[in-house]
Amino acid sequence: MSVYVALFHSIVLAPGRRVVMSDLRDMVEAAGYKHPRTLVSTGNVVFEGPETPTGDIEAKLEAAFKMRFGKEVDILVRKGDDWRKIASANPFPDGEGSQVTLRVMRRPLAPAALETLRSYAAPGQRLAIIGGDLWIDFAGKPSEWKLLSALTTKRMGIGTLRNLNTVRGLAQMLD
User: Fold this and answer.
1) Which domains does the chain have, with CATH numbers?
2) Are 166 and 42 spatial neighbours (Cβ–Cβ below 8 Å)?
3) pLDDT of 64-95, one tens digit each?
4) What is the DSSP letter of 149?
């Protein structure tokens, strides 16, 4: 058995209606995976399953989510060991856990993406691409910066944001 981390892009079903984490765990288990456990209420699940390509797991979970909740969502899956590497690769260790954010990408970002994003960044904000994923130190509340508006699926491809506290929390759940 292998351990995986699944990140759900959006678990808002309708205005004011989010997926309950116990329902999400039940969905993952019904899809054939073992010991699903969640972290915070934003769609982070650690679970166990047979060694399988992550793209196949993403497709299976996305289909299960649509069937159960009636909405399509993007789900990104990483193997547990890969998640540990991601968490330890934080290029901004001096940043605050709620201000440093990781955008996990389905397809790796090219280094050229940094130049485009820098035009949206405010002074003091830092950007780095490591392993194809984007790290950002917002140097303040992310909601206050125009850089956030550039981090859309349309502009960057399928991905999802998690703050450093969540990245670390998921890594700890793997231990």
Assistant:
1) 2-80 (3.30.70.1280), 83-174 (3.30.70)
2) yes
3) 999 999 999 999 999 999 999 999 999 999 98
4) G
Which residues contact residue 26 at a Cβ distance below 8 angstroms, ignoring those fewer than 6 apart? none
Residues comprising the chain, all counted: 175
d(CA 11, CA 143): 19
Ranges of beta strands (E only) in the chain are: 2-8, 12-14, 17-18, 34-38, 44-49, 75-79, 100-105, 126-130, 133-137, 159-163
Question: 3-class DSSP state for residue 127?
Answer: strand
* Both tokens assigned to 134: 């984007």
pTM, full prediction = 0.92
Distance CA 22, CA 84 (A): 25
Q: Which residues of 98-123 are buried (b: 16+ CB within 10 A; e: fewer)?
A: ebbbbbbbbeebeeebeeebeebbee
Residues 74/84, Cβ–Cβ less than 8 Å: no
- Do the bridges between strand 126-130 and strand 159-163 make them parallel or antiparallel, or are there none, so unpaired? unpaired
pLDDT tens-digit series, residues 124-143: 899 999 999 999 998 876 66
Contact 43, 11 (CB under 8 A): yes
- Residues 6 or more apart whose Cβ sits within 8 Å of residue 131: 85, 86, 89, 108
Look up residue 173 and give its two tokens: 């759940």
